[in-house]
Amino acid sequence: MTDPVPSFEHSTKRILVVDDDRSVRDMLVRVLVEDGYKATSAADGNEAVEMAAEESFDLALLDVGLPGKNGWETFINLTRETPSLAVIIITARSNQQSIATHLAADALFEKPLDFPLLLRTVRELLDKTVPKLS
User: Fold this and answer.
1) DSSP-based three-state secondary structure for 72
2) What percent of the chain is modeled with pLDDT above 70?
3) Angle (nearest 5°) at CA 113 between 107 and 114
């Protein structure tokens, strides 16, 4: 079975990509835009929190290993301000699943990323009709 073709509805979904590695940020934004989403990026947790305070996002792809405010602190800040925000944790670190589960992250992907699975997970999270419980 093939993945569904991006729909017009995707174009209204806004995704924030947070990663300190510019090549990873750029690649994720490009893949998401090619799949029909509006994607923008932040290089660190502080920038991500500032951006989320200024504009609304439907989903965040959030790296754990950020300089300054780490990914987990950023996750807490983002979801405190926007409890309905879907968050996918991306990390090169092993043994992060228990923290992700404890903090109620929507998904966790270890690098290197499986892009077809990541895009499928993004679609599933954004297509949910039931809002997150706060």
Assistant:
1) helix
2) 87
3) 85
- 2 versus 116: the higher-pLDDT residue is 116
pLDDT for the residue numbered 10:
57
DSSP element (H, E) containing 63: strand 59-63
Residue 108: C-alpha distances to residues 5, 6, 72, 86, 130 (Å): 24, 23, 12, 12, 20
Q: Which CATH architecture has domain 12-119?
A: 3-Layer(aba) Sandwich (3.40)
Per DSSP, what are the bridge partners of residue 110?
91
| pLDDT tens readout for residues 80-111 | 999 999 999 999 988 899 999 999 999 999 99
Residue type (1 letter), 133: L
Cβ-contact 122, 59 below 8 angstroms: yes
Q: What is the pTM of this model?
A: 0.87
As given in the structure block, the two tokens for residue 54 are 């200024």
Q: What angle do CA 34, 40, 46 make, to 5 degrees?
A: 155
User: Peptide bond before 67: cis, by omega within 30 degrees of 0?
Assistant: no
Residue 78 backbone zone (phi > 0: left; psi -120 to 50: alpha; other: beta): alpha
The kind and range of the H/E element at 14 are strand 14-18
